[in-house]
Amino acid sequence: MAFLKQYISDVYRAVSSLLKGMKTTGSYFVRPKEIITQQYPDNRASMTIPERFRGEVVMTHDENNEHACTGCTACELACPNATIKIVTKFDTTPEGKKKKALDTFVYHLELCTMCNLCVEACPTSAIKMAQSFEHSVYDRSQLLKKLNKPGSKLRAGVE
Amino acid sequence: MYRETQIIESAKTTSPNGGPDAVDDGALVINVGPQHPATHGVLHLVITLQGETIQKIEPHLGYIHRSIEKMCESLSYRQFIYVTSRMDYLSAHINNHGCALCVEKGLQLEVPPRAQVIRVLMDELTRIASHELWWGAMAMDLGAFTPFFYAFRERETINDIMEETCGARLTMNYMVPGGVMYDIHPNFQKRVKDFIQLFTNKIDEYDDLVTGNIIFQNRTQGVGVLTAADAISYGCTGPVARGSGVACDIRKLYPYEVYNKVAFDEIIETAGDSYARYLVRIKELKQSVRIVEQLIDNIPEGDFQAKTKAVLKLPKGEFYSRVETARGEFGVYIVSEGGTTPYRIKFRSPGFSNLSALDHISRGCKIGDLMAIMGTLDLVIPDIDR
């Protein structure tokens, strides 16, 4: 008799626990507003990416095609993965002196882990993190980027 | 001969201890992993079965070994922190925190109070996110698919908060020696409060869905019992040891940052089975919420980062610091020769020690119970293999 009682109470407990769980799941049928699925990539236009999101390193250029990179290689030294390679050249100043300047800012997006250490290290805030995140390309060589635009030069007053 | 075949052959023929380890005639040796949906990573288990009963489990590691410790020897004290996000990627913040603490110990650097509170807030949010993923994945291993979506729904909110403040969703690299990388986002406090409000209702939903479920209880209660003595001798930490009644919470025993100023309970269950380990984590979620609630309105004003030199040099010596990750004790041991890079780094990862108890607690269980045991051990394979 005790066995039967135990058996029936077990069955009752089992069925009620299962129904309780099903009630939780089933209640979402009548609360469709709480469903949070996003229809990516159809919602690209309405997506908001936080401004701190780290997508890739870019160099900021102003309207005169001038940047703030002095070629000091602080970012290159700060990078843990050798993602950045800075090629420098010697410019001649109006006074006739030779001065080190940036020639090419080589950036390997395929090696970058978006740790932000280069942006932190930059003394002139020449580089920053961009919010783009769709980086897939068909060939790896397309991920090798030159960050300074062609013809750009150092902004006056930046040392 | 394939490597897997070799391992099976050697498991059949060798009996290292002679007696109880010797494989009987008619035993079946099977592989679980390295590509298996329930191992959640490239863990390779060689299981000796007698019928359906597990006789022996041999974990084989090395499939995701990246030699992180060796890599860190060539990186500076600022740079090596980001690599540790790739170990236990579910508690990336807490790993980074442990490394930052160790470097600060070497530099004898005082962290500003604001940075300490932000760090603890981030740690606890990470712990909630990690336990959420564990809850979803574990229920999925046991055949319940819906909890996975529910867990990810709430975890997504935390990821969005992280994305807004830290700039990344999983491998944040937000902790730097001396504080945090940037100040919290202006929306941070409001969004965390919204999340807490949403989340406290959802924990009850979790209980209805899984904790009270009779199938789940029958599959986990009394399965994979780890006694307190075994938990200590295997070096288990975190929820695994606390489920066996061992008080081992680093936040209570060796408080770091502001953990000695906040009120929270150390959750201890004494049964030692899979269900006890499950309960510890579910209750820890509520404790983490409690810590966040206490701190979110009390972030002190001030600097978020202490002034440090451009090049960090640790004095000659040995430094060790430990933190409580979502999985247990994470230790960082740095040997410095006085240079800009560490001479040697050793990480004590919680997953490795917890995995070592797997063979002991699964012997005699059925093969179906293995998923419940592995689920509640909460193994993250890159953390085990490094």
From TrEMBL, chain A:
Annotated organism of origin: Niastella soli
One Pfam family here: Fer4_7
The keyword Membrane is assigned to this record: yes
Name the record gives this protein: 4Fe-4S binding protein
Gene3D superfamilies linked: 3.30.70.3270
UniProt entry tagged with the keyword Translocase: yes
4Fe-4S ferredoxin-type domain location: 60-89, 103-132
Entry keywords, A to Z: 4Fe-4S, Cell membrane, Iron, Iron-sulfur, Membrane, Metal-binding, NAD, Quinone, Repeat, Translocase, Ubiquinone
InterPro entries the record matches: 4Fe4S_Fe-S-bd, 4Fe4S_Fe_S_CS, NADH_quinone_OxRdtase_chainI
Coiled-coil region: none
UniProtKB/TrEMBL annotation, chain B:
Ranges where the NADH-quinone oxidoreductase subunit D domain occurs: 141-386
Keyword Oxidoreductase (UniProt): yes
Function (record text): NDH-1 shuttles electrons from NADH, via FMN and iron-sulfur (Fe-S) centers, to quinones in the respiratory chain. The immediate electron acceptor for the enzyme in this species is believed to be a menaquinone. Couples the redox reaction to proton translocation (for every two electrons transferred, four hydrogen ions are translocated across the cytoplasmic membrane), and thus conserves the redox energy in a proton gradient.
Enzyme class, first EC level, given as a word: translocase
Catalysed conversion reaction: a quinone + NADH + 5 H(+)(in) = a quinol + NAD(+) + 4 H(+)(out)
Record has Membrane as a keyword: yes
EC assignment: 7.1.1.-
Region named Disordered: 1-20
Pfam families associated with the record: Complex1_49kDa
Protein name per Swiss-Prot or TrEMBL: NADH-quinone oxidoreductase subunit D
Subunit organization: NDH-1 is composed of 14 different subunits. Subunits NuoB, C, D, E, F, and G constitute the peripheral sector of the complex.
Residue spans of biased composition, Polar residues class: 7-17
Alphabetical keyword list: Cell membrane, Membrane, NAD, Oxidoreductase, Quinone, Translocase, Transport
Localization terms from the record: Cell membrane
Family statement drawn from the similarity comment of this UniProt entry: Belongs to the complex I 49 kDa subunit family.
Major place of residence: membrane
